[in-house]
Specification:
Aldehyde Dehydrogenase, Chain A, domain 1, globular, binds NADP nicotinamide-adenine-dinucleotide phosphate, alpha/beta, seven-stranded mixed beta sheet, binds magnesium ion, five-stranded parallel beta sheet, Aldehyde Dehydrogenase, Chain A, domain 2, 15 helices, single chain
């Protein structure tokens, strides 16, 4: 049993002002795995005051001073990756290879990217007699979801530190353990008091207190559209910057010259990674209509081949994060059936043999782009296959979505892949499996308005100042 009952404020582990706790449930067993404290507005006040105080000195540190801290964090992070992996596995049910691998690896990747970017980032630019200076925006509230807990926290904390901001992290109640260990890492690495603070608790209380707080200069939020909108409204009266990384319903286009069977299989098993709880998942698989039958067979085989079970065992897929998430996904699967979509693999209920835990069957439907299961983000292991007639049709379907987060194109002709990728109205398109920690990540349309990852992620945390009549040094 983990008991993470203290918050990290002003360089110290402190008890909440009013004691109140919540159980954390292991999604694989449905048993309580530990306890966290739920903070109050008074805890937020303390954390914001600490961050405000620390901003005066942290914002004035040199690039080298901040690099030293990030390098110390990196050393400590690498020492504790095993513990972080175990925490992620326990809190959100990632299979151990994934939890110990990509989950913590993403954190390491964002840290390395922040270090690389900080070495060369241009904080100043002389343009004629004007000096344009990029300065830290101030005190930042970082509000994160449970689906890739290490990715979501690190992709915000490290650029905020690198640019000279101070911060308060509000981790998700469903996955609070890895954030707690990360706070320990920052403490051991010597992050100065008040620069990083963490308060656990509910979004409605802690998140609202941060979004409305006059001493918070920006909110970086990753999560659902509903909460993203709520935060923006709450932040409006104090005119703070709000960066939103929201949901997606991304198209994965298999072009007609691609190896269809291999690509459909990879796209299908890829959809099931992390139990489909990935904002950038390629959840709409677009295949040529002339080869739909082959695609269906390949997707069925791949989905049926995804093993589901105990995260501590050797399975490809674990449970989804919570009972609520399980119920939402079941509702979508039932809706798919009642909407008349063709069920190719999986379906309602738990996989055979599993009687406990929030396990969902890897599910594939064939449908059209106007159905609810093709339009709404399910955030579970559910793939929809949609047939297209020609490239223009594929692009039309891909772009006919309220979201615009990611896209995937696979094909043999690089020029054609590039042309298709250019026409997709999303913030991030992976061509034939491309992946890059320095590529800006964020959404068009209802997928949000921010850009994180690497050097581009620094801009969320910077103000731009013009110094006119600034004579360059002779
Ligand atoms: P969520 O319900 O929006 O929660 C995200 C965070 O916001 C949690 O820490 C939550 O606290 C907090 N929160 C809740 N209500 C709040 C309020 N009124 N004010 C301020 N904060 C509040 O999202 P989720 O269910 O955890 O995550 C799933 C969603 O995130 C999906 O839609 C997914 O696509 C999206 N997502 C997007 C990206 C991206 O980069 N674009 C990445 C990952 C996930 P609690 O602890 O109380 O829940
Ligand atoms: Mg939620």
């Amino acid at each position: 049993m983990r008991e993470y009952l203290k918050f990290y404020i002003d360089g110290q582990w402190v008890a909440p002002i009013e004691p109140k706790t919540a159980d954390v449930v292991n999604p694989a067993t449905e048993a309580v795995s530990g306890k966290i404290s739920l903070g109050s507005v008074a805890d937020v006040e303390k954390a914001v005051a600490a961050a405000r105080k620390a901003f005066a000195s942290w914002s004035q540190t040199s690039r080298e001073q901040r690099l030293d801290i990030l390098l110390a964090i990196q050393a400590e992070y690498h020492k504790r990756m095993g513990e972080l992996g175990e925490a992620v596995i326990e809190e959100m049910g990632a299979p151990s290879a994934l939890g110990n691998g990509f989950h913590v690896g993403l954190g390491a990747g964002h840290l390395a990217a922040a270090i690389d970017s900080l070495r060369t980032f241009q904080f100043e630019e002389q343009r004629g007699a004007t000096l344009v200076v990029k300065e830290p925006i101030g005190v930042c509230a970082l509000i994160t979801p449970w689906n890739w807990p290490m990715n979501q926290t690190t992709v915000k904390i490290f650029p905020a530190l690198a640019t000279g901001c101070t911060m308060i992290l509000k981790p998700p109640q469903l996955a609070p353990y890895s954030a707690h260990i990360l706070a320990e890492i920052l403490h051991t690495a010597g992050v100065p008091a008040g620069v990083f603070n963490m308060v656990q608790g509910s979004g409605a209380v802690i998140g609202t207190a941060l979004s409305t707080h006059p001493e918070v200069d920006m909110v970086s939020f990753t999560g659902s559209e509903t909460v993203g909108v709520e935060i923006a409204k709450n932040a409006a009266p104090t005119v703070k910057r709000v960066c939103q990384e929201l949901g997606g319903k991304s198209a994965h286009i298999v072009l007609d010259d691609a190896n269809l069977v291999a690509n459909v299989a990879a796209a299908t098993s890829g959809m099931m990674v992390n139990s489909g709880q990935t904002c950038s998942a390629g959840s709409r698989l677009l295949v040529p209509a002339s080869r739909l039958d082959e695609a269906i067979a390949a997707a069925r085989d791949a989905a049926n081949g995804v093993t589901v079970g105990d995260p501590k065992g050797d399975f490809a897929m674990g449970p989804v994060v919570s009972k609520g998430q399980y119920n939402d996904i079941q509702r979508y699967i039932e809706l798919g059936v009642s909407e008349g979509a063709q069920l190719v693999a999986g379906g309602p209920g738990r996989p055979e043999g599993l009687t406990k835990g929030f396990y969902v069957r890897p599910t594939v439907f064939v449908t059209t782009n106007d159905t609810t299961i093709a339009r709404e983000e399910i955030f579970g292991p559910v793939l929809v296959i949609i047939a297209y007639d020609d490239i223009d049709h594929a692009i039309k379907i891909a772009n006919d979505s309220p979201f615009g987060l990611a896209g995937y194109v696979v094909g043999a002709d690089a020029a054609q892949c590039n042309a298709v990728a250019r026409r997709m109205r999303t913030g991030w398109v992976s061509i034939n499996g491309g992946f890059d920690f320095q590529a800006p990540f964020g959404g068009y349309k209802k997928s949000g308005n921010g850009r994180e990852w690497g050097e581009f992620g620094f801009h969320e945390y910077l103000e731009i100042k013009s110094l006119l009549g600034f004579a360059p040094a002779q």
